[in-house]
Amino acid sequence: MEKKTIYAIGIIAIIGVGGGIGIGVFLLQGGSPGGFTKDTLVYGTMYLPVDLDPQVAWDSASGDLIDQVTEGLFAYDLSDPQLAIIPRLAHATIAPTWSGGDLNFTVTLRDDVTFHDGTAFNASAVQWNWERMAWALNTTGTNNDTVTQIAELYEWPDGTPFVNHTEVVSEFVIKFVLNAPYAPFQALLCFSGSYIQSPASTTKDAYLITATSDLVGTGPWVYDTYEAGVEVLMHAYPSYYGGWSHTSITKLVFSGITDANTRNLALLSKDIQFLDDPHPSFHSQFAADSGTILVGDDPAEEQQSLVTQYMGMNTKAINLTYRKAISYAINYSYITEELLEGTADRLESPIPEGILMGNWSSQEALYNVTKARMLLRTIGYGYNGTDSVDGWYNGSDITPFDFDYDAVWVSAATGGRAALSVSFTYNIGNLFREDMLALLMDNLPKIGITVIGYGMTWGEYIYRLYEVGNLDRDMLELYWIGWGPDYNDPSNFINPLFTNRSVASNGAQYDGWYAAIEAGRDPRVQWNNVQLLMEAGIEETNATIRTTIYARIQQLLVEEDMPWVWGYSSKVFDAYVVDLMGYNTNAMGRVWFYPCYYA
After folding, report:
1. Which residue(s) pair with 194 in the sheet?
2. DSSP H stretches of helix in 278-391
3. Can you give the residue ranges of the Solute-binding protein family domain (predicted)?
4. Distance CA 557, CA 488 (A)
């Protein structure tokens, strides 16, 4: 489907920084442009890693690399639509056990694993890594750097870590001793922050430096080099316990191609061999091209992604009335049907369908410009039926006004009488976010709000959310971002994104206490306060009670507090060269290249 152009406006011209990628790949592979040798797999990605250290990284690009090089005790079976937890470094046939009132979790390990530096993997190596995590959390009191940004995934709200300590029961048996029962602990061990690095090659009391450090794990791929903004090179670990008899691939390349058009064209020319989440405008070309396969266009293989997409609204800068008005002013059908060409569904909750306790029964804001204008009327802004400056409410004027006169609302917004001026921050090269800027610049002036776009690199963008260096969340007003599951539990979609103790992911700076007051609820009552509810949710082990808690959290966020514009959840698409076999397309959006081979 060709995208409509009714919202077309001038956007900063993008120079495809990946424009020369074909030459780089061509030289690497020793082939000719448009061809490739079958000892190499090149993954074309918009983003390259921000953080190399598993105990720091919390973005998908970093996680994609870390997943190839290091491993956890457990993983998700990406070939299973239910994403069952399976052993990875844990023993394949001896199941883990809970004891001591659900405070002790004992895991038997594989006994045939070595790290890339030749060091043996055993229970002592696992213990060493969790002692390193204790340093990263500053549980030890010796971390003179910064507490890891993933701390909230490993701590109770009061800062107490989930894990009190570990015990080496025997060479290949490790026991985790928790400070309190934590239901999704095994799922947490599937997250990259719980992966195991070599004690012989990793500093225990310092983070890896992305530009210069070496990442040494047990995974199928050995980390070689990283040229920032260009590529990451890896080679197959010959002693990998899983073996290599299934494939001729010995080299893995992550090729950074920021510009979406260049990236998608690179697959059509076979300069890359794999592309996840291909742009919808290229779907028909991939489906028609005899040299590529598009996964996801057949209804029989359709999967709904567990990755959520939303527009955060800085609650410190944009009050509840404006957040509600903005939520009703956006044309959601245009997003799903035109910008995404029918490849996504509207998001109706922060917890996607497919995640435990996801509940889409609450009523999200629908496109209704009249309702948005009526909300602004309640704070004294609007058109009273005369095309003049005097036709705008000054807070005391109560003359009835026209809710339907688009032109005068737009004129007011762009002519110095805007109700509000907001910025929309995005990363250059992301076509969808660039399209969202155009949509916002069309939609929001119709309710008297002007929009200013701020485009920047991915690093500059994400570091505002992470508050790295001199960048912080106060620099964001409106921003579009995605969230993928670290593990399958509702808390993973709520606590990092909405807790008032969060920095790295709560870009909206939402606070359940303040939100309750702003909405007229008593914040001292748990039922009214998302912060209190989320704290109760991670402590509660009764599934029925937990379900009720998370249903209420979703209702408050979706219907009353509206810290986000609820965006979309995509259908899952991958595209790759026709000869590539073994890749498991999955709802979590994880890339895992070890099973791949060429026909």
Report:
1. none
2. 283-288, 320-329, 332-333, 369-377
3. 86-501
4. 20
Residues 312/476, Cβ–Cβ less than 8 Å: yes
Six token digits for residue 359:
């509940």
Q: Residue ranges of the domains in the chain?
A: 71-210, 304-571
| Structure tokens that stand for 443 in this block | 């939609």
| CA dist., res. 18 & res. 231, Å (int) | 10
Q: In the block, which residue shows the tokens 């903004």?
A: 229
pLDDT tens column, 461-518: 989 988 888 999 999 999 999 998 888 899 999 988 999 876 668 999 999 999 999 9
What is the rounded distance in angstroms from the CA atom of residue 177 to the CA atom of residue 163?
A: 6
Are 266 and 24 a contacting pair, CB within 8 Å?
no
Over range 341-351, report the average pLDDT. Answer: 94
Residues 269-283 pLDDT 10s: 999 999 999 999 999
Q: Which of 591, 594, 573, 597 is nearest to 277 (CA)?
A: 573
β pairing state of 231-236 and 251-256: antiparallel
CA distance 399 to 301: 57
User: What is this structure's pTM?
Assistant: 0.76
In the three-class reduction of DSSP (H, G, I as helix; E, B as strand; rest coil), residue 378 is classed as: coil
**Can 71-210 and 304-571 be said to share one CATH topology?**
no
Cα–Cα distance measured from residue 69 to residue 50, given in angstroms and rounded to the nearest whole number: 15
Query: Taking 70 as the threshold, does the pLDDT of residue 388 lie above it?
Result: no
Please give the radius of gyration of the chain, using alpha carbons only, rounded to the nearest integer. Answer: 25
- Please write the tens of the pLDDT for every residue from 37-63: 999 999 999 989 999 999 999 989 999
User: How much of the chain, in percent, has pLDDT values that exceed 70?
Assistant: 90
Q: What is the Cα–Cα distance from 505 to 212, expressed in whole angstroms?
A: 26
CA dist 215 and 54 (Å) reads 9
Which tokens belong to 385? 């039926």
Burial 533-569 (b: 16+ CB within 10 A, else e): bbbbbbebeeeeebbbbbbbbbbbbbebbbbbbbbbb
Distance CA 566, CA 564 (A): 6
Q: Which of 127, 131, 126 is nearest to 115 (CA)?
A: 126
Note the pLDDT of residue 383: 61
Residue-wise burial string across 441-479, b where 16 or more C-beta atoms lie within 10 A, e elsewhere: bbbbbbbbbbbebbbeebbbbbbbbbbbeebebebbbbb
Q: Of 311, 312, 274, which Cα lies nearest the Cα of 293? A: 274
Best CATH choice for the domain 71-210 from the list 3.40.50.1970, 3.40.50.10260, 1.10.3720.10, 3.90.76.10: 3.90.76.10
The CATH superfamily assigned to 304-571 is: Dipeptide-binding Protein; Domain 3 (3.10.105.10)
In order of 259, 315, 477, the CA distances from 451 in angstroms are: 24, 17, 10
The per-residue DSSP string of 357-369 comes to T----S------H
Phi-psi region of 296 (alpha: psi -120 to 50; beta: other; left: phi over 0): left
d(CA 570, CA 253): 26
What are the residues facing 449 on neighbouring strands? 420
Q: Which residue has the tokens 């992470």?
A: 466
Q: What mean pLDDT do residues 537-554 have?
A: 91
Q: Which residue has the tokens 């029961």?
A: 169
Distance CA 37, CA 32 (A): 9
